[in-house]
Every structure is written in structure tokens, then in C-alpha cells.
Amino acid sequence: MKRTLLVLALAGITSTAFCTDRIVEEFGVSPTYPNIGAAVAAAVDGDRIIIKNRAGDIPWIQDITVDKSLEFLSYENDGRFIVQGNYSIAPANGRVVLINGMRNTSGGIIAAGGTSNVRGTRVRVVDSYFVNGGLNLASNYFDVDVVSCTMMSGTVSICFGNVVGNDIDGSSVNDEAISVSTTSPGTTLDTCAIIGNKVKGRVGYEGIFGSSFGQVFHIRNNYVQHGWMGIEVYEGPVTNAANLIWNNTVTAYTGNFTTYGINLANTNTGSIWEIMNNVVTRTWAGECRGVNNDSGNQGQINVYFNHISTGISTPVSAGFTFAGSNTIDQAITLNADGTFLADGAAIDGGNPAAPFYDLDLTTGDAGAYGGSYTLNNFHPLHSGSARVFMTGHPFNVRQGSTLRVKATAFDR
Length: 412
Prior knowledge:
Blueprint: E1 4-11, E2 21-24, H1 36-42, E3 48-51, E4 60-61, E5 64-66, E6 71-74, E7 81-84, E8 87-89, E9 96-100, E10 102-104, E11 109-111, E12 121-126, E13 129-130, E14 135-137, E15 142-147, E16 150-151, E17 156-158, E18 160-164, E19 167-169, E20 178-181, E21 190-195, E22 198-212, E23 215-220, E24 223-235, E25 243-246, E26 249-252, E27 259-267, E28 272-276, E29 279-282, E30 288-293, E31 300-304, E32 307-309, E33 314-316, E34 327-330, E35 386-392, E36 402-411
Parallel strand pairs: 1-36, 2-3, 3-6, 4-7, 5-8, 6-9, 7-10, 8-11, 9-12, 10-13, 11-14, 12-15, 13-16, 14-17, 15-18, 16-19, 17-20, 18-21, 19-22, 20-22, 21-23, 22-24, 23-25, 24-26, 24-27, 25-28, 26-29, 27-30, 28-31, 29-32, 30-33, 32-34
Antiparallel strand pairs: 35-36
């Protein structure tokens, strides 16, 4: 078999060739800066703001408005710079902002005033830790990647971009833990990856919510704990490219009314949805539904090789195609990290086709730890300064074909 590897694109976050490094240091004098705001004020597009921590790791306490293309980095290799406050990103065409290695004790990343083209402002938040805060750039101006971040009490809300390999606890926040909602039809079609996240949602809110005209969703290998809906999706672009909800483990850990593992509503005519290899279970004692066919669905929705636990009142709603291949009414018990407490039908219970095998080349497991995008690939990522965090590639390699791989990476 001919196997030629062609790396089609390595989309890295790298330093600008002729940038200036502006060092922030407590009590700093020229050429350093005494605080982050002073360094930002002096910077021009393409500069790097390199931050030394204060004595005793006391945070730099400032609200910062970012109105230039800048990178924010820790002075210590593989370390984090410690701050407190909101970082407001002002949109502008061609603006690129990278925040790599922030530890924010109280505050988050939010939008400032301004405009740009749709997706005209690129923001990358990488390997950062938010103690009490999150990221809200829910505007069509922004194209956002949130990668390998921890939010102890926060959420992520964007319109375009990717959410990959994060640990997000939104159980104390009145919002969806992850929300990707695009309100701009007619934009260039792209893929939104919501992959490899550990998510905990609040009672009455979705763990993962997606609604898009201009992006195809790949919602894969997430461990979602929720108190209402684990994963809910709307709309969907009208295209031959299918939206994938694959290999997620979804559990209702609490609630105060009916809960839903995976809910589909108002899907567009011509959209395609593939609901496959998911595990839906619960520890909450109230009424639960598994994969639910809500109102307004006009898309093609295929539901197969999913595993639904006992005690789910409606494991799989009527009206889906291929629904007979799901496994229902089985005992499923999870460990705290979403792995299975004991082997059951979900082990080797996913789609048996070879492209969905586990990394050990056995038949793929259902749930977040099954298949090639197993959740183990994404936790932890805080190791080393350069890493590839996501690849896109064909599942099948045929003789005589070239394997084209698109990789997304960052390097400080």
C-alpha cells in the first residue's frame, strides 16, 4: 500500500519575525515596563508582551483593553503569568491576539467596542487557567480558538472557532458551559471542532449548545455532565457535509425537571446530522430522555450505535433513521473522569467499522474514550511549549492515494 504523508497545513501560532518583546517586571524601569497596561500602551502590532510574575505570585491587578495585534506570554517557559481582571479584545480587520499561559484569579476574556468583517479578528486563548471567569467573544467579528484551558467557574461563548481539550466547570454560572452560536448565514463554510472537552453545566442550562448556519459541527469525545441538556443543537448548514456528534459521554448529574442527553431541534432542511457512538446515562433520579427529537426538525438525522442506560424514559425518540442499531436499557456506571466503572456493552460497542477502531486497533468503544479522538489525547496538554493539538485527516487510506493531514498547533 502506498502511504505518502502530505502535511497540507500547519496552522501555528508563532511569533512575528520583527516583533518587539516588551518585558513586564514589578517595579520595572526602561527598557522593561512596570505593569501590563504600560507595555500594551507602548506596543505596536505584532509585539509580544512577556510577563514576569510579581513577588509571591501576587496577580497583576488590571483590566486591559487589547486594541492591537499582540501576544501575551509568560516569562517562564512552560509557566503561567498571574493576573486579575478582564482582558477586553477590540475587533478590527486583520487583528490577531494570542493569550498563552494566563492564570486569571478573577476575570476573563471579553469583547470591547469596535467592528470588523465577519471572522475578521482572530483570538487564540491557549493553555490558560481561569479561577473565576471565562471567555465571552460571542460576536460574528471574532474567530476564536480556546485550547487546553481550565475554567473552575466559567463558560465559553463564541460564534466562530474551535473549543478543544478544555476542562470547563460552568455549574455555578447562569449560561451554557460551551456555546457556539452563529447568526450570520452566507458566510464561508467551515468546521467548528468541539472536541475532547470535560464539561459540567448548571441546572437549567446546556452543557454544549450549538446553532450555526456557517459551520459544520464536529462535537466529539466530550465528557458532559449536565442539569438539563447535555448537548443541544439547532439549525445546521445546508451542505453535503454532515454534522458529527460522535463518541460523547453525557450524564445528567442533577436537575429540577426533565433532562435530555442529546437534543436536536429546529434543524434546517438539507442539513445532515450523524449521532453515533455516544453514551447517555444519569445519576439524577428525575425523568430523563436519551437522544431526543424535539420540535421543528427538518434535517436528515441518523442515530446509531449509541448506548443508553437503564432508567431513561425515552431512550431514542421516534422519527430518527437507523435508530434500531442503538443499545438501550443497560447498566452504565461511570468513574469521576467519565471512564466506565466496569466493562459493559459500550466497550467495543461502537460502530464496528475499521475507521472507528480504538487506538489499540480493537473495535471502537462508545463514549468519550473511544475511537482515535479519545479524550485521553487531550488531558493534560500543559506540557512543553510547542505542540500539535488537533489534526484533521481522512478516516480511510486507499492504495495509491495521498494522505492529507491538516494540523493545528502553537509554539510560544
